[in-house]
């Protein structure tokens, strides 16, 4: 089975996958944006489980069951960097994707859906985040052929979809 990477023009809450990724804050106790939406949809048991995880460091990832979410088996919570325009930002964002895929593989997932990590209130420029996230996922998949995970980049906004599409088409046109 060969993995594929696809754009999904919807929220992670709509993706039928083994795990969805939550762009969480370091407390893991819910927040705004996709984090708040996931917590509301998964129900109060998610908050109880997240309290037991005692937070999460930037670039790391932690797993919980999906609880009331019926479209996935688990939720991978990862904390993206607050953008400052440094090399550390890129390395931490790469770590979010790598650690999330590591957890998906550990839990036997054949598919995972990512939102735009750090592209909301954390201020990571979308065009830069697209390059980092796509390349991190492709690199992970090449390094782990024993884990053929299908990856979906969920693009809730049309601007996200267009940015990913333009970058991926450019990569393919260059033969990469």
Fold blueprint:
Blueprint: E1 5-8, E2 19-24, H1 33-42, H2 44-53, E3 61-65, E4 74-79, H3 87-106, E5 111-114, H4 126-143, E6 150-154, H5 158-173
Helix pairs in contact: 3-4, 4-5
Shape: globular
Provide the CATH architecture.
3-Layer(aba) Sandwich
- Please mark out the parts with pLDDT under 50 across 5 or more consecutive residues, or reply none: none
Number of strands: 6
Secondary-structure element pattern, one letter each: EEHHEEHEHEH
In CATH terms, what is the fold-level topology?
Answer: Leucine Aminopeptidase, subunit E, domain 1
Q: With helices defined by DSSP (H or I, 4 residues minimum), what is the helix count?
A: 5
Biggest β-sheet description: 6 strands, mixed
Summed over residues and divided by their number, the pLDDT gives a mean of: 95
Distance between the terminal alpha carbons, to the nearest Å?
21 Å
User: What do we call the CATH homologous superfamily?
Assistant: Leucine Aminopeptidase, subunit E, domain 1
Instruction: Report the helical percentage.
Output: 40-55%
Counted up, domains total 1
By secondary-structure content and strand pairing, the structural class works out as alpha/beta
CATH class: Alpha Beta
Task: Trace the largest sheet across and list its strands.
Answer: 1-6-5-2-4-3
Strand content: 15-25%
What radius of gyration results from the CA coordinates? 15 Å
């Amino acid at each position: 089975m060969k993995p594929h990477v696809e754009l999904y023009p919807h929220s992670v809450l709509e993706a039928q996958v083994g795990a969805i990724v939550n762009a969480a804050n370091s407390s893991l106790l819910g927040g705004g944006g996709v984090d708040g939406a996931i917590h509301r949809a998964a129900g109060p048991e998610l908050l109880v489980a997240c309290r037991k995880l005692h937070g999460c460091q930037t670039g790391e990832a932690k797993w919980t069951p999906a609880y009331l979410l019926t479209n996935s088996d688990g939720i991978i919570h990862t904390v993206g960097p607050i953008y400052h325009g440094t090399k550390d930002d890129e390395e931490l964002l790469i770590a979010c994707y790598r650690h999330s895929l590591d957890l998906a593989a550990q839990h036997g997932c054949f598919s995972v859906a990512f939102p735009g990590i750090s592209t909301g209130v954390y201020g990571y420029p979308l065009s830069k985040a697209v390059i980092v996230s796509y390349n991190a996922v492709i690199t992970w998949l090449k390094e782990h052929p024993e884990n053929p995970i299908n990856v979906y980049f969920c693009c809730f906004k049309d601007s996200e979809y267009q940015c990913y599409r333009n970058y991926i088409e450019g990569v393919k046109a260059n033969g990469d």
